[in-house]
Amino acid sequence: MPEHVSVYQLLGMTLLVLVAVAWAIGLAVMLRRGRREAALWRSGHGLPALPHQRQTGPGRESVELTPAEEDAFAGLVRQLSGGR
């Protein structure tokens, strides 16, 4: 052990090296796990927590308007379109 280096400095450096190694190992594990999950997601399995999407949309709904409602709607459309 060098004479000009205190025990606390050596312990501090050792602790910093151990923390850096643990951080690097944790980062490698997280990146590897993320890469595997991305590969599974790209392969078509999708996300297991989300339901499958429907290929067709919902049925269309329509309501019959009375002549007074049709006139009111036409007036609203003219008003919003600026009389065009």
Could you walk me through the main structural features you see in this protein, from its secondary elements to its overall organization?
This protein has 84 residues and is mostly helical. It is 63% helix and 0% strand. It has 2 helices and no strands. It has helices at residues 7-45, 67-80. The longest helix has 39 residues, at 7-45.
Give a quick account of the main beta sheet: strands, pairing sense, barrel closure. none
Counting DSSP H or I runs of 4 or more residues, the number of helices is: 2
Total number of β-strand segments? 0
Q: Helical content, roughly?
A: 55-70%
H-E order: HH
Mean pLDDT over the residues = 84
pLDDT < 50 stretches: none
Distance between the termini: 91 Å
Radius of gyration, taken over Cα atoms and rounded to an integer in Å: 34 Å
- Outline, from the CA principal axes? elongated
The fraction of residues in strands falls at: under 5%
| Protein structure class | mainly alpha
Task: Annotate the secondary structure layout.
Elements lengths: L6 H39 L21 H14 L4
Summarize, please.
The chain crosses the membrane at residues 6-31. With 84 residues, this protein is mainly α. 63% of the residues lie in helices and 0% in strands.
Keywords for this structure?
elongated, 2 helices, single chain, mainly alpha, 84 residues
